[in-house]
Every structure is written in C-alpha cells, then in structure tokens.
Amino acid sequence: MPNDPGPFTFVMAGGGTGGHVIPSIAVARELKQIGHNVFFIGTRHGMEAKLVPAAGFDIDWIEITGLKRVGLQQTIATMIKLPSSIWAARRILKRRGVHAVFSMGGYVAAPVMAAARMLGLSMAIMEPNAIPGATNRWLGRMARRVLLTFKEAAQYFPGANIEVTGLPVRQEFFEIADKPAGRLTVLVTGGSQGSRTLNQACEQAWPQLKHFRLIHQTGATQYEPIASRFATACIDGEVVPFIPDMPKTFSEVDVVVCRSGAGAVSELAAAGKPSILVPFPYAADDHQAKNAQALEKIGAARLVLDKDFSGDRLIAELTALTPEKLKAMSAAARTFAKPGAAKRAADLLIELARG
User: Fold this and answer.
1) CB within 10 Å: which end of the chain, N or C, has fewer?
2) Residue 307 per-residue DSSP state
3) Alpha helical stretches, state H, 206-322
4) Which pTM does this prediction carry?
5) Is residue 72's pLDDT more than 70?
6) Which domain covers residue 52, as residue numbers?
7) Residue 167 and residue 147: Cα distance in Å, rounded?
C-alpha cells in the first residue's frame, strides 16, 4: 500500500435502498472534495442506479439480488449469480486500482467485499442500525474498521475495531434553530413512500386535531383521496405527497411522528426534534424497534408499536407533550447527534489507504 498522501481511489459498496446509498454519497463527497477518486459498485435495479449518477459519481454494475424474505426460486438464482458477481467485482477493483473499500451493507456489498478480501484490500463498514443486517455481521469479520450509529450494535462485532461515528446527515439538519413557542405543530410522515398505518391514524385523529397545526406527508400513492377529504376537515395545516426540503419543514414543527429507520432517527437527533416513533413492523430483524428503543431510552422519543397506533393514541401522545417535556426531549435528542460523521468516515478510509 502506498505511503504517499494520494490521491487514492475508493469504492463505495452497498445499495438497494436510499438508506444504503445516501450516507455513502455523503462520505464520497468528503473524499472527492479533498482530491481523491471515488466510484460506486451497484446494480441497475437498486436506488443507486438513480441516486449515484445524480450526485455526479461513476458507478460500475454487477448482477446480484437479495436473499432476505425471498422465495426459493430467487434464493437459488442469487446463489448461482454470486460467484460470477464476485469475479465481476474483482475485475472492477483491479481495473480501477482501488486502495480501500467502504460499505454500508446490503446484498450489493457482499460480492464487492468478498472480492476486496481476495485482493487484500483494506475495508471499512458502516452499520446504521441498532441491530446489524446479516451482510454487515458477516462483513464485520473482514473489515479493518466498523463504524456504528448506535453503540448497542457493538455486541454484534466481537473483536472488531469499532468506533461510534454516527450516520452521515445533511448539515442543514444540524443548523435548525429552536422553534419559538406557540401553537403545537405536528409533522406526520411515513417517508417518501408514505405509511398506511400513519396515514390512517392521522386521519382518524382529525376531529381532535383542531387545536394543533398539521403537516402530513402521505406518499404519492395515498395522497389524492386523503387530500380530498382533508380539504373539508377544517384543520389548520397541509397535506402533501412529498416534502422536498425536509430540513425547512423540521424547522417549522415541534414534534415529528414517523417510522424509525436509521436515517430518520439520525435526522431527528441532528435537528433536536422530539418524536413519536412507530417502527415498521416488518423491518429486517425488527431493527426499527431497536432504533426507536435507543431514542426512547435517553428520553428523546416516545415509542408506539404499529399495532397499537391509532387516532386516539396519537392524540393521547400529543396531549401529553407539555412545553417542558418537549424542551427536555429536544435536548435529549441532540445528545444522540453525531456531527461530522461523513468526514470522520472519510478520514478513516484515507488512513486505511495509507496502510
């Protein structure tokens, strides 16, 4: 491994979902900003196919699919593809002259990391959740560094060189000022695709929401019927299919009602926003529940199980949020925030490249 300061070439492995790709892009931008070469390896059917080129980075393609909660036919097809995807990744790594590899996990990362190990390349993985996914648990045995968002995940990587860096979050979330006291404003969001559970509970609560201001992101598929009914509900607020500028919306609200994916809880912490978290019940290894429990444990959030979430429960949770309680939850949320996570990951990768 070279001892000079570079420039080095790094590969970002991991795709399929925005939760894998967006933090990788944040780290890639840090590396590119100081003059290093960065590219991605992914599949044409994952979110990386859209997000990576839009961010201005090169991407090389391999063919691989997931193994989690799939039928026997896809499992067999994936296992057949695995050797060829490893060799394809190996050829890419050699051709690109890669110095170190960064992975967010997921099925796309497995063949890339296996190929990197064959070539003796240094590897770092970032685990965003309180319970690691199967791929990252396996990759943790290969990686030189394991970067965590939740300290609770450390138990799954015995003997690894671990650091709790947090998950890369846009700087705008850290810059949100405290909202002035006033009418309680509530953001309900199930993410870009929406959540039927959150949407239904919010609509059930409309008759009792007249004392609050509501911003409700429904997701595109459920927007039109909900918006049509909301127009006659006489409630202060708005219903939208998608919020393009979430930091701006966070600055306007007192409390956020949402799922508890790693990206969501990291943004809540960066912004210091109190939250009512309703974990997605079908998340792999129930990791969203563990994420929510970590925030509830420090007093930053309230956790409500999906099966228990209703309009009446939403109103009960909101009514219990006194100004003093909101202030305490906001302060607790900020203790979980980890500014500079992308830069720290980039610095560690450069250390690995230098050997």
Assistant:
1) C
2) G
3) 220-230, 246-252, 262-271, 287-297, 311-319
4) 0.87
5) no
6) 9-168+340-354
7) 9
